Amino acid sequence: MLITIVVLAIAALALTTQFGAVLVKRAYPPQGRMIEVAGARLHVVELGPRDAAGPPVVMLHGASSNLRVMQHPLGERLAKTRRVILIDRPGHGWSSRDRVEDSTPAVQSRMIMEALTGLDVDRAIVVAHSWAGALGLRMALDDPDRVAGLVLLAPVAYPWRGRVGRYNELIAMPLIGPLLAHTITLPLGTLVTTSGARGVFAPQTMPDDFVESSATLLLLRPREFIANAHDLVTLKAAVTAQAPHYPEITVPVSIISGDADKTVSTAIHSRPLAATAPHARLIVLPGVGHMVQHAAPDLVLSEIAAMAGRIVQPTTGTDRTAPANL
Questions:
Q1: Is the pLDDT of residue 306 over 70?
Q2: Is this entry keyworded Hydrolase (predicted)?
């Protein structure tokens, strides 16, 4: 009798998840086009004039999100004067990947560079947030001739103490992970999504429409939740391997972080990176948390413009730090 009840409960949760995933997909359809690359199918949204002066700007989102996090407010404002390319990282948003194990910055760097080739982009400024900070750094290491510069927002760059959450580790496990993702993740996630997003914004206040405008609920679909978990549990080993090579980065790097960031520690990541990468500029925003693009969008946009200027006039010295002005 007990076994029957458990089986029926699991079946009910699986049906609820399947139905919920259909509703989420209908609520947040793809906005751009799909580009086939080796091992993935990437969803890309292009904004702004294709013939704008200067290199295009490629915007990459972090974990537990999709390209809309970079589209509002930065991408749409930037697109008034520049060509902007927003990409759902492999396995996120409307991008897929053939193997869930293709979770590292090295693999995703290769996929994104292949997509940019398909878009006839030879060289670009890369703007990357959080998890994607490690990805942007990897792109600069692997393809320095194609990365004109990096603007990193609260980036992950180095290994850290601790773990990435027991639930993520469970989801990344064989058998039990897919079982949880296809049963309880979506029903449970709908209850905690808003509070979780508020925590990422803290100490700033999350915009009332953020969960809706950012299509955050796409994360709760089983295949994306599993991909996100693999991205997180493999990240520490990936940055441990690539961090010793940061002194080899030849492109200009601008780093913007908040000193109140409880998600990605500025002391562990941004400050050491600024002290290590040549031609690095660090701006630390007092009292600002993880979502620096929402807390100080004007500053981020001005730093992107400054990066474009640094590319026109190559750096002749190392600018390690700069004062923060909100």
A1: yes
A2: yes
